[in-house]
Write a structure and sequence with these properties.
The chain has 548 residues and is α+β, with helices and mostly antiparallel strands. It folds into 4 domains: 15-185, no CATH class; 208-313, PAS domain (Beta-Lactamase); 319-382; 394-544, 2-Layer Sandwich (Heat Shock Protein 90), CATH 3.30.565.10. It contains 15 helices and 13 strands. It has a 6-stranded antiparallel β-sheet. Strands 8-10-11-13-12 form a 5-stranded mixed β-sheet. A two-stranded antiparallel ribbon has the order 7-9. Helix 3 (85-98) runs antiparallel to helix 4 (110-119).
């Protein structure tokens, strides 16, 4: 920033400083010239004979010539020292004005002395005072003035020295204050720029989030909102003041909520709520299902209380759930017809007397598998949402787990034989647990089916059931292809298949272990997997023996 001051010995490096120095030179020179012009005019009226005094005439001409030069010279291309010549010339011209007159024009020396004191160094000021004293002494000697005149010269020089030193100190303090102020202004500007950049970054980050975020004061003022919120509620980009053009409803094509019952008004009152579902009807005729959460914000010093609204558009999520349930219902319903035919014909075959024991055992396995599939289809049709929460507690009873494991092993005997895999159930006593027998069979079928599927020919699958403290421990061990260590943390994710399985080319959906995990979790149990690529896998399930 420019100070408008001239520093001795330095060129006009800064264009703004150069312009300030030139303006100051013009102002000081024109001020002195104006005063001399006024004195000259009044003198020509009152005492015109004074104007013919050679010294006064020379001083006036020199002063006006210096003023014209100050205005005409190209100071922008000259060093700063050149400007310092002007006040010294003015001292000489004022000295000539004081020769051989009684007008006391020596008072005009205050102009160049003040100029030197305000804009130049202390050395320049001392040189100017010395020049004033020298000129005054020359006048006393030339005019052969009495001793009193010499005393007046001394007093004038001392007075000018006092004025000059006072102005010089004041100017230095002013420059110091201005320098400090400039630094503070620069710091403030830097801080404001930093805050502005951070605010812009935060705004850009929030605008990139698909969740609508709005902050509302207790007076109902919308303090801030990201683009997702403005878009959902159709708020004007330049005037985000509510209400928007979108209206909240209590349900799809339901009843519009009153203004006081809408999420915005409730947040303004400081209410807190979690994942409340509302339907939003936009000005374009579209419906959006929203999950809205509000949180009160602790105000800082000087801030008013506010509430933050988090609005998530769950329209596609609900649509996906609806499509999933519809698909499950359609598929399940369509499976019932051929399955009914399979079970009916199996029953008729079992009624025949010409079947050998092996054929009859195989038909009973088919019948058992069909009945379990029919039970599963019925569960899907009667329960829209399935998973751990859908397991009803009244479906659990004191169940003999070893018998279920034995039945599952028997059902996979044919598949294991086809894959040239040995399958066996480790011997042991009966073990009972409070569990859903149907779900336990489903869990074991998934585990044993995976073990047989991913075990190469010549391998073995072993199932064991034993009591382990307060739990029943079920372990399924195979000598299959194994699971990479990097894939183990994700093995229970929906539709996840390990890289080893994908590379093997064996078909699958990636749902089996997820279903197993849900069943075990619903029973309050745990599941652990220990696997090594190329060596095999052991899945260990522990289920409490007693009801929670």
């Amino acid at each position: 920033m420019s100070t408008g001051l001239i520093r001795v010995g330095e060129p006009f490096a800064d264009p703004r400083e150069r312009e300030g120095g030139i303006r100051n030179a013009w102002i000081w020179q024109l001020s002195l010239a104006a005063v001399v012009a006024i004195v000259t005019v009044f003198t020509s009226v009152i005492a015109p004979q004074v104007l013919v005094i050679p010294a006064l005439l020379a001083g006036s001409i020199g002063l006006f010539a210096t003023t014209i030069a100050a205005l005409a010279l190209p100071w922008r291309r000259m060093p700063m020292d050149a400007v310092a010549v002007l006040p010294y010339l003015d001292i000489v011209w004022v000295g000539l004005l004081t020769f051989s007159t009684d007008l006391r024009l020596s008072h005009l020396w205050v102009f160049p002395i003040t100029w030197l004191a305000a804009l130049f160094s202390l050395v320049r000021l001392v040189l100017g005072l010395g020049l004033v004293g020298l000129i005054a002494l020359i006048e006393v000697v030339v005019n052969d003035s009495p001793v009193e005149a010499a005393l007046r010269v001394l007093i004038a020089v001392l007075a000018l020295a006092f004025v000059g030193s006072t102005v010089h100190l004041t100017a230095r303090q002013g420059r110091a204050y201005r320098t400090l102020l400039r630094r503070q202004v620069r710091r403030i500007h830097h801080t404001l720029d930093t805050v502005s950049i951070e605010q812009r970054r935060v705004s850009e980050t929030l605008d990139g989030v698909h969740i609508g975020i709005a902050r509302i004061s207790r007076t109902g003022t919308l303090i801030s909102a990201n683009s997702a919120y403005r878009s959902l509620y159709a708020l004007n980009e330049f005037d985000s003041a509510p209400p928007g053009r979108a209206v909240e409803y209590d349900g799809f094509r339901g009843t519009a909520l009153r203004a006081d019952d809408r999420t915005y008004a409730r947040a303004a009152r400081g209410e807190e709520f979690d994942a409340e579902q509302v339907w939003l009807f936009g000005p374009d005729g579209s419906w959006h299902a929203l999950s809205v959460t509000s949180r009160r914000q602790t105000p800082r010093s000087g801030e008013e209380p506010s509430t933050v609204l988090l609005v998530e558009d769950i329209t596609e999520v609900l649509a996906a759930h609806r499509r999933r349930d519809d698909l499950a219902a359609i598929v399940s319903h369509e499976l019932r017809n051929p399955l009914t035919g399979i079970l009916g014909n199996t029953d008729r075959l079992l009624e025949r007397d010409d079947l050998d024991d092996d054929a009859r055992d195989r038909l009973r396995v088919i019948e058992s598998a069909g009945e379990r599939m029919m039970h599963l289809i019925t569960s899907i049709l009667s329960t829209p949402q399935h998973g751990p929460a859908s397991l009803e507690r009244d479906a659990r009873a004191l169940t003999e787990v070893r018998g279920i494991a034995e039945a599952s092993v028997d059902s996979f005997a044919a598949s294991a034989h086809e894959h040239v895999v040995t399958i066996s159930l480790a011997p042991g006593p009966p073990v009972q647990a409070w569990a859903d027998a149907f779900r336990l069979r489903q869990m074991l079928d998934n585990l044993i089916g995976n073990a047989v599927k991913y075990t190469p020919a010549g391998g073995a699958v072993t199932v064991s059931v034993r009591r382990a403290g307060p739990d029943v421990e079920i372990a399924v061990t195979d000598t299959g292809i194994g699971i990479p260590a990097d894939d183990l943390p994700r093995i229970f994710e929906h539709s996840f298949r390990s890289s080893q399985v994908v590379d093997s080319g064996i078909p699958g959906t990636g749902l089996g272990l997820r279903i197993v995990h849900d069943i075990v979790t619903s029973h309050g149990g745990t599941i652990d997997i220990d696997s090594e690529v190329g060596m095999g896998t052991t899945v260990t399930v522990r289920i409490p023996t007693e009801a929670a």
